[in-house]
Amino acid sequence: MPITSMCAEKKLQVYNDDSQLIIQQWEDLSMDCLVNVFGRLGLESLVLDVPFVCKSWYNVTLSPLCWQNLDFSTISFFGSFEPRFEKRIRAELQVNGKINLNAFVKFLLLRRGGFATRIVFPRCCKHEALVLAANVCPALKTLGLPIFVELDHDQHGKITTVKHLIRKWKDLDSLIMENSWEMIAILEQIGIHCKNVVSLSIKGTYIDGSEALAIVTHLPNINSLFLRQCDFKGANLLMILKGCNRLSSFDMSYCNVNSRGGDEILELASRIGMVKYLSNKNNHFYLESMEWKVDLL
Fold first, then answer.
1. CA-closest candidate to residue 253, choices 223, 287, 224
2. In terms of Cα–Cα distance, which of 92, 144, 87 is closest to 118?
3. What is the pLDDT of residues 141-195, one digit of tens each?
4. Pairing of strands 76-77, 80-81
5. How far apart are CA 142 and CA 114, in angstroms?
6. Which sign, positive or negative, has the C-alpha torsion 195, 197, 202, 207?
7. E-assigned strands of the chain?
8. Angle (deg, nearest 10), helices 234-243 and 209-218
9. Widest distance between CA atoms in the chain
10. Under DSSP, is residue 75 helix (H, G, I), strand (E, B) or coil?
11. Cα separations (Å) of 283 from 5, 64, 205, 241, 294?
12. Is residue 166 within 8 Å of residue 186, measured between CB atoms?
């Protein structure tokens, strides 16, 4: 149910410890309770819905604890806003001029990012937004990197890239990537500065031997690996399966694997607690009812 519709009734039915039904006004809920609820919402609801329900809810959204999950991918389309969201923000906030996605990202990072533990950047953004996040979001645990980063120079003319920022996020435990640009350098920095990383998600790219080796070498404690829509040789997949021996969850949905080592891949994959594989017509591996079936070339 949409937030605005849900709040129109103005009442919430809850049960106390004695199983007695209690009718409360939504606006009378404690701040801690509302922060817990609002912190689970997406950016669209936090920006365009909740603050306009009532004054008490607006005041709750001023708490940085509501903004721990900043997922910009849900409101953006490459370098601009997602059309429906842009239409809403123009109508709700009465904006007539150009709306800059990068400025919006920086605004939220500055005003609300201090307690952020999860940030997923737009698929295309300026590098200055990542630099800002590195400086104002030290408690970050999940980082979703953009596909395209518009690089910029510092005051001395030096280019700073993503790999130079990783050291700022020492509490990082999950990394999301949609390409392999700087992957080796980034994973190397993670191995040095981010000892708690246990989850890696990579989508839609080719993983060569050096990148497979980097995963194995620099992420020794990884237990969740998601390689969706990736292409790689069977030898590189074997390297990952052999080297990442703590995996409990492995997803290689819609990957293209060129290999004759199907039996060994099957045997290694069978040791992992949860394996997910959805094939397309070009693949040679199939998963049915959590059992591996191999069609050797």
1. 287
2. 144
3. 999 998 888 776 554 445 567 888 999 999 999 999 988 788 999 999 999 999 9
4. antiparallel
5. 14
6. positive
7. 11-15, 21-25, 69-71, 76-77, 80-81, 118-120, 124-126, 142-144, 148-150, 174-177, 199-203, 224-228, 231-233, 249-251, 256-258, 274-276, 285-288, 291-294
8. 10
9. 67
10. coil
11. 46, 46, 15, 18, 10
12. yes
Distance CA 81, CA 73 (A): 9
Return d(Cα 150, Cα 139) in angstroms, integer. 25
Please classify residue 163 by burial: count the beta carbons closer than 10 Å to its beta carbon, then call 0-12 exposed, 13-18 middle and 19+ buried: middle
The model's pTM: 0.80
Q: Read off the amino acid at residue 243.
A: G
Torsion (CA) 165, 166, 171, 173 in degrees, nearest 10: 140
Which CA distances in Å does 82 have to 44, 185, 238, 250, 270?
11, 31, 39, 31, 41
> Tokens for 139?
């408690």
DSSP letter for 171, please. T
Q: Dump pLDDT digits (tens) for 47-95.
A: 889 988 888 889 999 988 999 999 998 888 777 888 888 888 888 878 7
**Any idea which residue has 């690996």 for tokens?**
225
| Tokens read off for 107 | 């605004």
Question: In angstroms, rounded to a whole number, what is the distance separating the alpha carbons of residues 74 and 12?
Answer: 29
